[in-house]
Specification:
The complex is a heterodimer.
Chain A (H helix, E strand, L loop, with lengths): L2 E3 H15 L3 E5 L15 H5 L4 E3 L4 H13 L3 E5 L3 H4 L3 H8 L2 H4 L9 E5 L15 H5 L5 E3 L4 H13 L4 E5 L7 E3 L13 E4 L4 E5 L3 H14 L4 E5 L2 E3 L3 H11 L2 E8 L4 H12 L9 E5 L8 H7 L3 H11 L5
Parallel strand pairs in A: 2-3, 2-4, 4-5, 5-7, 6-7, 10-11, 10-13, 13-14
Antiparallel strand pairs in A: 1-8, 6-12, 9-11
Chain B lengths: L1 H8 L1 H26 L14 H8 L7 E5 L3 H6 L4 H8 L23 E5 L5 H14 L6 E6 L6 H13 L3 E7 L2 E2 L2 E2 L12 H4 L3 E6 L3 H18 L3 E6 L19 H8 L3 H11 L5 H24 L19
Parallel strand pairs in B: 1-2, 1-3, 3-4, 4-8, 7-8
Antiparallel strand pairs in B: 5-6
The chains are: A alpha/beta, B alpha/beta.
Bound molecules: thiamine diphosphate and magnesium ion.
């Protein structure tokens, strides 16, 4: 299987889906002439022309709404946000329009559209450019939210997102775009709503998604050297969440750590912990712990930025704690 | 001008315009009655006084054109061809409502007549209409989309973002500002840096005009030009249609007394769009008292029928609560 980057995997997904269905078009800032701020849309303008690869002004609310309107009359827009930080200006269209149109029209207007772009922190971009929005978006009924952690998942989930008749949020990662993995050249999709067991182990579950999947896999490999076997549940989809996969893992390991990129309060981890306490209460040998960003805006300076972010060391410490292993 | 002359002389057309306006008026008078009885709940914004805008504009659209509007949507829904029954049932929160009782007063939708809502966030639907215009051009069609908004929405970022894109990309969108002079209790002079809102179209390379919204023929004339422009080469238009609402902002707001005086209201009421058309038809003898009485009787029956229908329609069953959040993907 070809080894390609996460970026190229997304590019393949877009290209294949645009060939497959001429209702699919891509719109956003710098997606055309510039080939995408992160080069995800490289070559697409040349291949599909400017009606289908649309460079927009810096007008997030406006072009998100253009996507909603186009979806109402049967097109299948893929709306790229240069990063999710800027999508906050478009939240009215995502939350009040895309997520609710089907419901408030009594089922008349489905919203087959995708909102996608990099989510979460990169390096030293500081407070306004380093935020993980999973919990904001996953809170909303009517949306689906996927967060691929590998190139293989990125291609398969983006293709599913584009074919889905509901609004799907695709959370990518600036720090993931250059990561490599095996990705088939041909067409395949990954079902939305199903988790993936990325690593197997029977001592402790790590439940995670998106960029943190890479962290969790490193934790798995490092702890394996100490004889600690970790189960890594990659949610892949945050909404609807694969609760069965979470409970199956926790019933096997009896211990869990939830790892997420975002903040603690009302975070994704809080939801996962709720499923666990509800469905695995009698299976737990320790309280469930959470690893997440420090409860502060992201700082710029290197050392304190590092201290703010969830990482391998913090996750290992949490796993050892739920296993009652002295550090 | 040709369009105006034709309208002036076409008494069948005049009768249908009059019918359309009176139907909206009587329907909404009934809505007010139902609201007072508690049959309708929530926010409910009446259109009374503005009927020449919906009738004038929508009487010129084709079936395959598109309509988006605000929460003040009952009149436009009916003029666009939604049945008074389905609109009233929606207001009553019943299963036979156009949105199955899930939308209510502010969220009328009917895909069969390309009525794309009924939106409750001021300015929120303006980008959507722009997207419908984009889709029309994407497919190479010759339809247009009309997007109604209040004059207060013009101060909202969504308006400016949308008009910029429509002007830049040349999209067949007709943006209609229904300038009824107030956004809730705020007079436009207290909210907008300009009193000539149509001129904002200049900034976005867009044809624009100021229109007398109490004169249905003036509305039609401006609308026809806008439609021709949209169909010919995808050119957008901004119309500022000057009108006035005769009722409060919503059912919880008195018609006058706080932010506007009774005298002001009475002055505007003298230019009731229905009376202006009636007077014109009576002058040119195309409307007899008997004609009018017959029209009123027929409309009263339709409106009563819509009430009876809505009242008899069941509430949505509890299963409906969880329906329509997601659709099953079929492709
Ligand atoms: C974004 C937003 N802010 C505030 C409101 C509350 N609100 C509803 S209608 C309205 C006034 C709008 O006035 P205008 O646009 O002139 O329309 P009109 O009601 O006169 O038809 C306000 C402030 C809202 N619905 N949405
Ligand atoms: Mg107003």
């Amino acid at each position: 299987m070809p080894l390609i980057t996460y970026r190229d995997a997304l590019n393949q997904a877009l290209r294949e889906e645009m060939h497959r269905d001429d209702r699919v078009f891509l719109m956003g800032e710098e997606v055309g002439v510039y080939n995408g701020a992160y080069k995800v849309s490289k070559g697409l303008l040349e291949e599909f022309g400017e009606m289908r690869v649309v460079d927009t002004p810096i007008t997030e609310l406006g072009f998100a709404g253009v996507g909603v309107g186009a979806a109402m009359v049967g097109l299948r827009p893929v709306v790229e946000f240069m990063t999710w930080n800027f999508a906050l200006l478009a939240l009215d269209q995502i939350v009040n329009a895309a997520a609710k149109m089907l419901y408030m029209s009594g089922g008349q207007f489905p919203m087959p559209l995708v909102f996608r772009g990099p989510n979460g922190a990169a390096l030293q971009l500081s407070a306004q450019h380093s935020q993980a929005w999973e919990s904001w978006l996953a809170h909303i009924p009517g949306l689906k939210v996927v967060a691929p952690g590998t190139p293989y998942d990125a291609k398969g989930l983006l293709k599913s997102a584009i074919r889905d008749d509901n609004p799907v949020i695709v959370l990518e990662g600036e720090m993931l775009y250059n990561t490599k993995g095996e990705v088939p050249d041909e067409d395949y999709v990954i079902p939305i709503g199903k988790a993936d067991l990325k690593r197997e182990g029977d001592h402790c579950s790590i439940i995670t998604s998106g960029k943190m999947v890479l962290v969790a896999m490193q934790v798995h490999d490092q702890l394996a050297k100490e004889g600690i076997r970790v189960d890594v549940v990659d949610l892949r989809t945050i909404r609807p969440m694969d609760v069965d996969a979470i409970t199956a893992s926790v019933r096997k390991t009896n211990r869990a750590v939830v790892l997420e990129e975002g903040w603690e309060v009302c975070g994704i981890g809080a939801q996962v912990v709720d499923y666990i306490q509800r469905d695995c209460f009698d299976h737990l040998d320790a309280p469930v712990l959470r690893v997440h960003q420090a409860d502060v805006p992201m700082p710029y300076a290197k050392a304190i930025e590092k201290a703010a972010k969830p990482d391998v060391a913090k996750t290992i410490a949490a796993v050892k704690k739920v296993m009652y292993i002295e550090a | 001008m040709a369009a105006k002359k034709k309208a002036d002389t076409d008494s069948a057309l005049n009768a249908s315009l009059l019918h359309s306006m009176i139907l909206q008026r009587r329907f909404e008078e009934k809505v007010a009655e139902a609201y007072a009885l508690g049959k309708i709940g929530g926010f409910c914004h009446l259109y009374i006084g503005q009927e020449a805008v919906s009738t004038g504009t929508l009487s010129l659209l084709r079936d395959d054109d598109y309509v988006l509007t605000t929460y003040r949507d009952h009149g436009q829904a009916i003029v666009r061809g939604m049945s008074p029954r389905s609109v009233m049932a929606e207001l009553f929160g019943r299963i036979d409502g156009c949105s199955r009782g899930k939308g209510g007063s502010m969220h009328m939708f009917d895909r069969h007549v390309n009525f794309l809502g009924g939106h409750g966030i001021v300015g929120g639907h303006i980008p959507m209409a722009t997207g419908v215009g984009f889709a029309i051009k994407y497919r190479g069609g010759d339809q247009c989309v009309i997007c109604y908004m209040g004059e207060a929405a013009v101060n909202n970022g969504a308006f400016h973002e949308s008009l910029n894109m429509a002007g830049l990309w040349r999209l067949p969108v007709i943006y209609v500002i229904e300038n009824n002079r107030y956004g809730m209790g705020t007079a436009m002079e207290r909210a907008s840096s300009t009193k000539e809102m149509y001129k904002r179209g200049d900034t976005y390379s867009m044809a624009n005009a100021e229109v007398d919204g109490q004169d249905v023929f003036a509305v039609r004339e401006a609308m026809q030009e806008a439609i021709d422009r949209a169909r010919k080469d995808y050119s957008p238009t901004l119309l500022e249609i000057r009108t006035y609402r005769f009722m409060g902002h919503s059912m919880s707001d008195a018609a006058s007394g706080t932010y506007r005086t009774k005298e002001e209201l009475d002055t505007y009421r003298k230019r009731d769009p229905i009376n202006l058309l009636k007077a014109k038809m009576q002058t040119d003898k195309s409307l007899s008292d008997a004609d009018l009485a017959a029209m009123e009787a027929e409309i009263a029956a339709v409106v009563q029928d819509s009430w009876d229908f809505a009242d008899a329609s069941p509430e949505p069953p509890l299963e409906a609560l969880y329906e329509d959040v997601y659709v099953e993907t079929t492709t």
